[in-house]
Design goal:
Number of helices: 6
CATH class of the largest domain: Alpha Beta
Number of domains: 4
Helix content: 10-25%
Radius of gyration: 29 Å
Number of strands: 28
CATH architecture of the largest domain: 3-Layer(aba) Sandwich
Distance between the termini: 36 Å
Shape: elongated
Mean pLDDT: 92
CATH topology of the largest domain: Molybdenum Cofactor Biosythetic Enzyme, Chain A
Structural class: alpha/beta
Largest sheet: 7 strands, mixed
Length: 396
């Protein structure tokens, strides 16, 4: 099997996800955080919907002094000012009465009995309808991830619910008799480091993780049963670790054949991360086969699973940004090299401890610099960066 070029593999994974994107569900705002807009967010009214005072003070008409004829608080329906020489006390956020010529700040005014004096500022101290957006204006496109800020904007526009694509449901299966699930490694057995970390990466990519199974015994029957059970539990995507080669205890390929799967991508020309795969199963389900080596598994996750999940959620294809190298990074011949880097003073630097089996470098990296096949990353070169998905407030 000839490995698929890395950029083509990512594109194929995204197309597969987009073709199987989840149907939109009308979702209450309180439940929409982390989902994806399935339609553009369009204003239902002007923003603001009525003239709104920006300050506490006095809405005045005509020349000073002004006689106080009332008060307007936020939430009140303001009656017009009918006569020159009159004013109403007004609160920040309150509706500005018709006929108002100025809003005088309270701290720049003097109240003597029922008369107000002061010098209004020349610029209006209120927001006019449509100042932020006009009715029917598109504020956000379909495919926008829903954040608390998006929820607040939707509420300000008058929405109680938005059409959103539900988060894909993921399951994780760890293969390998040699793995320990607790305590220090030793006596020929290594600690499973993927089972604890992959759910966090998947959640950062927009999936929910409902099921985790393993370590699964190195038999074909155990592989088939674990995969079938994961899909029957409702998973849209099953991620497996290990077993992607064709060795004596690598049963993933035969299990996929028994389950009627077809390959979207089978091996990718990338280092580290070889071999990885993405398969489609009946009913719009997917299985991502990640290598057993920890760093290679994360490379596979960002190469195939990230674009697949973006497509399933109706989001834009997983984009890269660019970075400038502060130190050289060697290429990997005919393979794309995904090199872990840290960011410092606006430059990207390679980190140490980046063998396929190591996680020390990953733990302090911002993402993977992409060194194209047949090239090297020279100091000062500008390269694409595949950023690791971070939660708010996290720093690499």
């Amino acid at each position: 099997m000839t490995p698929v070029p890395w950029d083509e593999a990512r594109a194929a994974a995204y197309r597969a996800g987009a073709d199987a994107a989840r149907a939109a569900v009308e979702t209450p705002l309180a439940e929409a955080d982390g989902l994806t807009l399935a339609a553009p967010l369009v204003t239902l009214t002007d923003l603001p919907a009525f003239p709104t005072s920006s300050v506490d003070g006095w809405a005045v008409r005509g020349p000073a002094p002004w006689r106080v004829v009332g008060r307007v608080l936020a939430g009140d329906q303001a009656a017009p000012l009918a006569d020159d020489g009159t004013c109403v006390e007004i609160a920040t956020g309150a509706m500005v009465p018709g006929g108002t010529e100025h809003v005088l700040r309270v701290e720049e005014s003097t109240l003597d009995g029922e008369l107000v004096t002061g010098e209004p500022r020349p610029n209006p101290e209120w927001r006019v309808p449509g100042d932020e957006a006009s009715r029917g204006e598109e504020l956000l496109p379909a495919g926008t991830p829903v954040t608390p800020g998006v929820i607040g904007l939707a509420a300000s526009c008058g929405y109680d619910a938005v059409p959103a694509r539900p988060a894909p449901r993921a399951a994780l299966i760890v293969f390998g008799d040699e793995l320990l699930t607790s305590g220090p490694p030793g006596a020929g057995r290594v600690r499973d480091s993927l089972g604890p970390q992959l759910p966090g990466w998947l959640r950062r990519l927009g999936a929910t993780v409902d099921t985790m199974v393993g370590p699964v015994k190195d038999t074909l029957d155990a592989h088939v049963e674990a995969i079938r059970t994961a899909f029957e539990s409702g998973a849209d995507l099953v991620c497996t670790t290990g077993g992607t080669m064709h060795g004596p205890v690598d049963h993933l390929h035969p299990a996929l054949a028994e389950l009627g799967a077809s390959y979207v991508v089978n091996t990718v020309a990338v280092r580290p991360g070889f071999p990885m795969l993405l398969a489609a199963l009946p009913g719009g389900k997917f299985l991502a086969g990640l290598p057993g080596n920890p760093q290679s598994a994360v490379v596979a996750l960002m190469s195939l699973v990230a674009p697949l999940l973006a497509g399933l959620q109706g989001r834009a294809s997983a984009a890269t940004r660019t970075v400038t190298l502060g130190a050289p990074i060697p290429g990997r011949g005919s393979y794309t090299h995904l090199a872990l880097v840290r960011l410092e003073d606006g430059l990207a630097y390679p980190v140490g401890h980046v063998a396929s089996s190591m996680l020390r470098g990953l733990s302090r990296s911002a993402g993977f610099a992409v060194v194209a096949p047949g090239t090297n990353g020279d100091k000062g070169a500008t390269l694409p960066l595949v950023p690791l998905p971070m939660m708010d407030g996290e720093r690499p």
